[in-house]
């Protein structure tokens, strides 16, 4: 199976999770108010969005040769390689980090995406990162899914098939849930669907999914792909999911069609819109695949844009 097929097939919700089954509910404990290792742990990064506490949680990394047409989503491999070299990246590899986002929204402990679950060549660090942030899996109340690809839903279940976050509601857009069910059904995943369905709550585009988090439709990558905008007072942060993958290629050459997008033209439009809005509003952005911890802003530079991570 090619790298493209592994990352982009709709049936990855099956491949990443296996035959998931509901596990007994553990005793609930209150999540600690401050990550105990926030200043020292290499795989977490605590920050604030107004009064909201958030933590970037490292799950792992993926890397692949920019010149390999089967692995790279950008067909113009020569241009991508030149861009990497000009940016000082001499190894010729496209590096993508994976960092789900933890958000404490009032009484809710929210996890946005769940990583790859140790698959697709990643390290499977999410649960260790979550615990370093002071949260046990049973304390997560809401899991927000941007889309149903394996590097975003893989952490929903362990290798034994038990649900990783047994007390959490799993929320995704209605269109994405239909997309996920269609892919899983084609793979004969009736048991998986039976296990997940009681946990899933779908929403319409633009829905307010928690008191401080609003779903933002970001067209192109999958039929129901969603970003999430987190707002507290006058501060906000936009989680962009897979609207962009590379902090270099996706930002500096947004017009390049991404082969991992289910619909390339809307994907280009979405990237261009995010860059214009982000730069015009100096909007804080969370890039789940950008270099860890993925927090920063887009800035206009010459006739294009660059990614500027927070220091």
Automatic annotation (TrEMBL):
This is Glyoxylase-like metal-dependent hydrolase (Beta-lactamase superfamily II). Gene3D superfamilies: Ribonuclease Z/Hydroxyacylglutathione hydrolase-like. InterPro entries: MBL_superfamily_lactonases, Metallo-B-lactamas, RibonucZ/Hydroxyglut_hydro. Residues 97-289 form the Metallo-beta-lactamase domain. It comes from Brevundimonas alba. Belongs to the metallo-beta-lactamase superfamily. The lineage of its organism: Bacteria, Pseudomonadati, Pseudomonadota, Alphaproteobacteria, Caulobacterales. Residues 1-21 form the signal peptide. The keyword Metal-binding applies. The keyword Transmembrane helix does not apply. It comes from the Bacteria. Keywords: Hydrolase, Metal-binding, Signal, Zinc. One of its GO terms (molecular function) is hydrolase activity.
